[in-house]
Automatic annotation (TrEMBL):
<dbReference type="GO" id="GO:0046951">
    <property type="term" value="P:ketone body biosynthetic process"/>
</dbReference>
<keyword id="KW-0479">Metal-binding</keyword>
<dbReference type="InterPro" id="IPR000891">
    <property type="entry name" value="PYR_CT"/>
</dbReference>
<feature type="domain" description="Pyruvate carboxyltransferase">
    <location>
        <begin position="9"/>
        <end position="276"/>
    </location>
</feature>
<protein>
    <submittedName>
        <fullName>Hydroxymethylglutaryl-CoA lyase</fullName>
        <ecNumber>4.1.3.4</ecNumber>
    </submittedName>
</protein>
<dbReference type="GO" id="GO:0046872">
    <property type="term" value="F:metal ion binding"/>
</dbReference>
<dbReference type="GO" id="GO:0006552">
    <property type="term" value="P:L-leucine catabolic process"/>
</dbReference>
<dbReference type="GO" id="GO:0004419">
    <property type="term" value="F:hydroxymethylglutaryl-CoA lyase activity"/>
</dbReference>
<dbReference type="InterPro" id="IPR013785">
    <property type="entry name" value="Aldolase_TIM"/>
</dbReference>
<comment type="similarity">
    <text>Belongs to the HMG-CoA lyase family.</text>
</comment>
<dbReference type="InterPro" id="IPR043594">
    <property type="entry name" value="HMGL"/>
</dbReference>
<dbReference type="Pfam" id="PF00682">
    <property type="entry name" value="HMGL-like"/>
</dbReference>
<keyword id="KW-0456">Lyase</keyword>
Amino acid sequence: MDERRELHTTIVEVGPRDGLQNEDRILPAEVKIELIERGVAAGITRIEAVSFVHPARVPQMADAEQVMAGVPRPGGVSYIGLVLNRRGLDRALAAAVDEVNAVVVATDTFCVRNQGVTTDAAMDAFEGIAGAAAEAGVRCGITIAAAFGCPFEGQTPPARVAELARRAHAAGAREIALADTIGVGVPGQVRDLTRRVRAAAPGLPLRFHFHNTRNTGYANALAAVAEGVTVLDASTGGFGGCPFAPAATGNIATEDLLYALHREGHTTGIDPQAVAATGAWLGDHLGKPAPALLGRAGPFPAPAG
């Protein structure tokens, strides 16, 4: 028996948040809710559904409470709300998210542009967020953004990422996500950061968030899986990017990642063809074709009949 068939990879669908936050066209709440409903129907069980940031900063996410009020609530599905500060956490808790995910950018210049504070100040805020979330009984994770490189400062020192992971672990983070926010990483960095962060935050679940800006996102995802990482972020259709980083485009597409993982023998519990259909549907709503390729090329082997 092929032992790979026993491996399961969890996909965190970030399309409703990261996939939409950089788009010129702001979709109404009912379309965002349908996007989430389609993902749940396809078998996705963890969804970053909303972001509780100031609407003046990211107007695409201004209706977070309305979206959370309308999402389906089947058993086994967990909704994540992204927060940057205590005000965002309070909104997230009031909206009844299942998890919160705080973001800390690994470089000061980008962190100031993204959330108005230095990296150290953002980590101080995270410590308060993690403690308050724990008191509320809500799982709290952290994304260390620009973990591979920064558009303003260049290469991000790996030791800096490891130190942030150590602080996150000490603060009570339940999961650490490393984000290649501008899509500059390569598999060797994935292997190095995985090992450094595991040493700095022993026993803490690790996930990765890759962008395919320079066509390395899927190679990086497979490198992470080869290191034993079992949770990866992806965005239906391959939409997404950061409004505060120049040319930060191209989340890895959920359907294309599913194709690669399934062909490698991993299970996900998600129907890639259903996700591909949703990617095309989302492209229609955004007024441009989805960057993902599975919906264009089709599955292989082709379905019988």
